[in-house]
Amino acid sequence: AEKQKAQFHAQIHEFNELCWDKCVDKPGAKIDSRTETCITNCVERFIDVSLLITNRFAQMLQKGGEMH
Amino acid sequence: AEKQKAQFHAQIHEFNELCWDKCVDKPGAKIDSRTETCITNCVERFIDVSLLITNRFAQMLQKGGEMH
Amino acid sequence: AEKQKAQFHAQIHEFNELCWDKCVDKPGAKIDSRTETCITNCVERFIDVSLLITNRFAQMLQKGGEMH
Amino acid sequence: AQELLTKMSEKCFKKCISKPGTSLDNSEQKCIAMCMDRYMDAWNLVSRTYSSRIQ
Amino acid sequence: AQELLTKMSEKCFKKCISKPGTSLDNSEQKCIAMCMDRYMDAWNLVSRTYSSRIQ
Amino acid sequence: AQELLTKMSEKCFKKCISKPGTSLDNSEQKCIAMCMDRYMDAWNLVSRTYSSRIQ
Questions:
Q1: Could you report the predicted ipTM of this complex, rounded to two decimals?
Q2: What confidence tier does A56 reach under pLDDT thresholds 50, 70, 90?
Q3: A18 shares contact with chain E (CB less than 8 Å)
């Protein structure tokens, strides 16, 4: 459980860096709703992309055998 | 003491990357005084920023309870 | 041998990131020969640069004594 | 929280200090404080979004 | 293969998703699939080039 | 010194090799040598500045 928690936190940091760079231009006095939507979508779509890639990779391994 | 030394070196590498990217455009035949000043200020101000953030974070924790 | 294999893989990842950023602009339906040449040269030249730097560093240590 | 503080320092330094001077001036200090608040907003938002997705 | 998948996800997200919307649209999904194939081409090429150099 | 050499190789490759060719030409080699000297200047300067600050 400790290890899982550490992994969860590492993921948050990774997502946060990626989505901060993508969504926050100049930090303002409050977070505006556009930035909020961008961050939420950014996290959701990044998870989609990771799942898409992981599943497609698994299929390739099954079909074509090992890489390299 | 070994661990502290390793931490010190890791910091130097981190600062050096950050300030190299900020201050060195095209590396010349000698380091010029402008680049030298930029690097010194860059390290000093980065330490200021880290301290500012760390202190403010400690205050927030005391006032508002835990983050998560 | 396990450790060497891990190091080899870490190198591949490092080279791949560096050369991907340098050589791939928009990923197309196939890898074109220009991108292929760029990646091969990128890996080869990066190894050249690393060797040049490592050898020159070793010479400096011999001549001038220790750093810092 | 060490990693959060490290990343926040890096990101906010890059956003707020374009030319490092001989001290942190007033506007830079304000920018750092705002950047820090926004970074934690983002962190909390990312954390909530990710948590609700993996449940 | 974990690290390959992580890096590939990051690089391809950056290349293909310029404005994250409420779902992955069709052209984004195609871009991700292509990017993934190219990333693995590059990985194999880098791997071959490096191997032949260090032998 | 391993980490110093790794970072120096990366930073100087990025600064000096804009289009990797079939060999390192003369001007690239000179650029790498200069970049390396400047990188170590910077490293020593950072190291001195940081040391005097934390004492």
A1: 0.88
A2: very high
A3: yes
- Give F23-33 pLDDT, tens digit per residue: 999 999 999 99
Helices F26-54 and B33-64, axial angle in degrees (round to 10)? 50
Of B42, B50, B68, the CB nearest to D9: B50
Per-state percent for chain A, helix, strand, coil, to nearest 5? 80, 0, 20
Q: Which CATH code is given to the segment(s) E2-54?
A: 1.10.287.810
The residues spanned by each domain of chain E are: 2-54
The residue to which tokens 């000698």 are assigned: B30
Tens-digit pLDDT string for chain C (68 aa): 888 888 888 999 999 999 999 999 888 899 999 999 999 999 999 999 999 999 999 999 888 765 54
Nearest to E46 among C16, C29, C31 (CB): C16
Percent of the residues in chain E that have a pLDDT greater than 70, as a whole number: 100
CATH code of A32's domain: 1.10.287.810
Distance CA D31, CA D34 (A): 5
d(CA D31, CA C15): 37
Distance separating alpha carbons of residues B57 and B53, to the nearest angstrom: 6
Range of the domain at A12: 2-64
Task: Report the number of distinct structural domains present in chain C.
Answer: 1
Q: Could you give the CA distance from residue F22 to residue F11 in angstroms, rounded to a whole number?
A: 20
For residue E4, the number of C-alpha atoms closer than 13 Å in the C-beta half-sphere is 20
Chains that touch E (3 or more CB pairs under 8 A): A, C
